[in-house]
Design brief:
Helix content is 35%, strand content 22%. The protein is globular and about 65 Å long. The strands form three sheets. A nine-stranded mixed beta barrel has the order 1-2-3-4-5-8-9-10-11, surrounded by five helices. The chain has 381 residues and is an alpha/beta fold. It has two domains: 286 residues, Luciferase-like domain (TIM Barrel); 74 residues, no CATH class.
Length: 381
């Protein structure tokens, strides 16, 4: 799973027969870095006014298993103490890897540590190799959906602080205590990820927000938005079928896992947000989206009114979330670098942790340059 950023809206208002949607933004930061760097990245996300910071709950990156990868809930506990305002959570916790009873304990503990700023997103599991690494069964799609359904039912109750007894195909709990009591009432917000109908049914039954995405079979914005529209209609129909108001179920779209081209320009981002609103906003009170490589997005509630355009060297492949050395300043008129995918707003840019990291690294050279020097020295020796 790549690092990603997201946008979400909440709190619809009707004014003059028009639906007004206030947009909120979040970021998913892939924790392939030391904790201090992760903390600084999330603090930067918080400092520019974003509303959510997520981490990936995986054992590692399937395509690069040698890459260091921090454990999600340990990292979230640290971030809960090292941040002040931003909401935190995993996107997503695989219920195959997390016994839902123990997962509820993790969540309730971090809920207390964060003073009520934790969200929980769960999924049925996607990468077969990740299950093989630890010897966890990887059933077919329907089997994973049944396991997700059991976990969601347990968590829906357990996150309220209620003892849970459950006897299912995959999970068994016998009057398991769920303490400490949740800081958030009636419970910690629950997000459920789903692509197929069976998983979406689980979300409709138990979730506050449904998480969905497109993969490489939706390569264009037109195709991705069309499939999203169809999926939103299915979710609405499933809500109606069980007597739930579709507007009570938030929608989160994780963009960038397909090559939709959403983040090629600010215009393409604006186009996608408009399509997203049209697809889901009429019947939903919250939506979010995430790009593939961690490109930044605009802040709905900036720390300052002074805009700062984020620029990225066109030759670089790292993202500002995982590489705080990216430049956060106004471009020179002759600068050949391209603007990164947004207009960020910040206060005094010199005050941001990322700026100090950038200054230190500029003196030492980039990470790649330092690595090349190390290899050259090693070969010479």
């Amino acid at each position: 799973m790549p690092p990603a950023f997201g946008i979400c809206w909440q709190d619809e208002e009707t004014r003059n027969e028009e639906t007004i949607v206030s947009v909120k933004f979040g970021a998913l930061v892939l924790q392939t870095m030391p904790y201090d760097d992760l903390r600084d990245a999330v603090r930067f996300v918080e400092s520019v006014g974003l509303d959510n910071a997520w981490v990936a709950d995986q054992i590692g990156v399937p395509s690069r298993p040698e890459m260091p990868f921090l454990e999600a809930w340990t990292a979230l506990a640290g971030l809960a103490r090292d941040t002040d305002r931003i909401r935190l959570g995993p996107l997503v916790s695989n219920v195959a890897m997390r016994n839902p009873g123990m997962l509820a304990k993790h969540v309730l503990t971090v809920d207390q540590l964060s003073h009520g700023r934790i969200d929980l997103a769960i999924g049925a599991g996607y990468f077969a190799v990740e299950h093989a690494w630890v010897g966890v069964p990887f059933p077919d799609g329907p089997g994973r959906s049944r396991r997700l359904k059991e976990a969601a039912a347990i968590l829906d109750r357990g996150l309220r602080g209620e003892p849970v007894t459950f006897d299912g195909e995959f999970f068994q709990l016998a009057d398991a205590p769920m303490t400490p009591a949740p800081t958030q009432r009636p419970r910690v917000p629950l997000y459920v990820a789903g692509q197929a109908r069976a998983s979406l049914e689980v979300a409709v039954q138990h979730a506050d927000v449904v998480v969905t995405t497109s993969f490489d079979d939706s390569p264009t914005i037109d195709q991705a938005s069309s499939r999203l529209r169809d999926r939103m209609r299915l979710i609405d129909d499933l809500c109606v079928a069980v007597g739930r108001d579709p507007a009570s179920l938030g929608r989160l779209y994780s963009a960038g896992y397909a090559e939709e081209g959403i983040f090629t320009s600010t215009d393409s981002i604006a186009d996608w947000v408009g399509r997203f609103v049209e697809a889901g906003a009429p019947n939903s009170r919250s939506i979010s989206t995430t790009p593939r490589w961690g490109r930044s997005t605009s802040s709905p509630r900036p720390a300052s009114s002074r805009p700062v355009r984020l620029w990225r060297d066109s030759r670089r492949t790292s993202c500002p979330t995982t590489d705080p050395a990216a430049r956060y300043d106004e471009p020179d008129p002759g600068d050949r670098r391209v603007p990164d995918r947004h207009l960020a707003r910040a206060g005094n840019e010199a005050d941001h942790p990322a700026q100090e990291v950038r200054r230190r690294r500029s003196r030492r050279g980039s990470r790649g340059e330092r690595r090349r020097r190390e290899l050259s020295t090693a070969r010479a020796a």
